[in-house]
Write a structure and sequence with these properties.
The chain has 446 residues and is α/β, with parallel strands linked by helices. 36% of the residues lie in helices and 16% in strands. It has 13 helices and 15 strands. A seven-stranded mixed sheet has the order 4-10-9-8-7-5-6, with helices on both faces. Helix 7 packs parallel to helix 8 and helix 12 crosses helix 13. The termini are far apart. The chain binds pyridoxal-5'-phosphate (PLP). The site of pyridoxal-5'-phosphate has 15 residues, from helix 5.
Length: 446
């Protein structure tokens, strides 16, 4: 088991001829609704490198959208997956049980914030975890309504796309949407009239909607991403999440932290809620949890988790044994290699460089994020008008040079960086240099 050489190397243009050929086949075989960020086909990956079928070594600043925090072929994950697959691949935990499921639950009960009694239920995808958190909160409170934020992203199923804010591409044409989903403003410092008052304004609106429009006695849950992911890596001001928690507690509303993108070390804390000293009632996890295998979870206060009677939760593949083995490997690596600290180091080395890109006349309007979840928001220079075309131009330049970055944001104008936490310092340094040059070159066209 060897990892690909940890060095950026271009053997062909990107995409190369083999990827282009496969792309043609893909176009005729696959539904057009499946998009692609970078149309290259991968045949090997690990550490901070993706190797495509043309032999290009691409630096991975995406981690499969915050999944492969331990890399795409972490030895602990690979070993445990192989061992488990050789023993059995499935029984359905609802039919006959296996230890791996219980071990992953115990790990999440231990690692999530709060010293209260906790329980966990495992599922398969992030959206499924969010749906189940809502089912649990509704059963526990006996209330129907769910409160979500502007810029939220919670998934693509009917309920979770209803909870998601952005219309195109996530919702357009897919309605009618699920009822009893109520949206309130997020605290988005860069897009507020004043960064100082944006938490006050967001809190005031949250209170108004819950108390006067929906009725607190009808609200089962407030669901928040502690750092909003797809919406633009929006870091709320210090204290905002605490106030949401206090408000939820005061009114018997379940606070659900969707840590599907932020969880398990990504932001330089095991959970992003910890930065704000918040202990949510329920936490959803997925992505990094499975080390690349599909696995998700809801973890929370035992009395809330136990509200749903036996048979009310689950799924054929929920907590699949191979995915649980992968998760145990990924968690082992995250803890033994101190990847939480590694994420802090990534922030320390990258954020300072990115901050130098902001300034008068620059299209980089804001740089933000925590740990290895960092972003640049592009605007028309001298304004806050979103500039998605500039973001796309910079991304295209990075891709052509062999650095994979992603766009996100409600306005499509944010470049996000999500390197695997195990990425080597030299590789990361090279990737950020490519990004800096791409921004400088693109600036000639502004
Ligand atoms: N919640 C958050 C915060 C996410 O970032 C995502 C995916 O990006 C989801 C939920 C949905 O997860 P999945 O795509 O596994 O259904």
């Amino acid at each position: 088991m060897t990892q690909p050489e940890q060095r950026r190397m271009l053997a062909t243009s990107i995409p190369g001829p083999k990827s282009l050929k496969l792309q043609q086949q893909r176009s005729s075989e696959l539904a057009d609704g499946l998009g692609t960020t970078l149309p290259v086909f991968i045949e090997d990956a690990g550490g901070g490198i993706l190797v495509d079928v043309d032999g290009n070594h691409i630096i991975d600043l995406a981690s499969g959208i915050a999944v492969t925090s331990v890399g795409a072929s972490d030895p602990e994950v690979v070993r445990r997956v192989a061992e488990q697959a050789a023993r059995f691949t499935h029984t359905c935990f609802l039919v006959t049980e296996y230890e791996g499921f219980v071990d992953v639950a115990a790990a999440l009960n231990r690692l999530t914030p709060g010293s209260h009694a906790k329980k966990t239920a495992l599922f398969t995808t992030g959206a499924e975890a969010v749906e189940n958190a809502v089912k649990i909160a509704r059963t526990y409170t006996g209330r129907p309504a769910i409160v979500v934020l502007d810029h939220a992203y919670h998934g693509r199923t009917l309920l979770t796309m209803s909870m998601t804010a952005k219309n195109v591409p996530y919702k357009q044409g897919f309605g009618p949407f699920a009822p009893e989903v109520h949206r309130v403003p997020a605290a988005y410092p860069f897009r507020s009239s004043s960064a100082e008052t944006c938490a006050d304004e967001a809190m005031a609106r949250l209170q108004e909607v819950v108390l006067t429009q929906v009725g607190a006695a009808n609200v089962a849950a407030i669901v928040v991403e502690p750092i909003q992911g797809e919406g633009g890596f929006i870091v709320p001001p210090a204290g905002y999440l605490r106030r949401v928690q206090e408000f939820a507690n005061e009114h018997g509303i379940v606070l659900v932290a969707d840590e599907i993108q932020t969880g398990l070390g990504r932001t330089g804390a095991m959970f992003a809620c910890e930065h704000d000293g918040v202990v949510p009632d329920l936490i959803t996890t997925a992505k990094a949890l499975g080390g690349g295998m599909p696995l998700s979870a809801v973890t929370g206060r035992a009395e809330i988790m136990d509200a749903v009677p036996a048979g009310g939760l689950g799924g054929t593949y929920a907590g699949n044994p191979v995915a649980c083995a992968a998760a145990l490997g990924a968690l082992e690596t995250i803890e033994s290699q101190n990847l939480v600290q590694k994420a802090q180091q990534i922030e320390a080395t990258v954020l300072g460089r990115l901050e130098k890109l902001v300034g008068p006349g620059s299209a980089v309007g804001d740089v933000r994020g925590r740990g290895a979840m960092l972003a640049l928001e592009f605007v028309r220079p001298g304004t806050r008008e979103p500039a998605p075309d500039i973001a796309r131009d910079v991304v295209a330049r990075c891709h052509a040079e062999g650095v994979l970055v992603l766009v996100c944001g409600t306005f499509g104008n944010v470049i996000r960086l999500l390197p695997p936490l195990v990425i080597g310092a030299d590789l990361l340094d090279d990737a950020i240099s490519v990004l800096e040059v791409a921004i400088e070159d693109a600036s000639c066209a502004w």
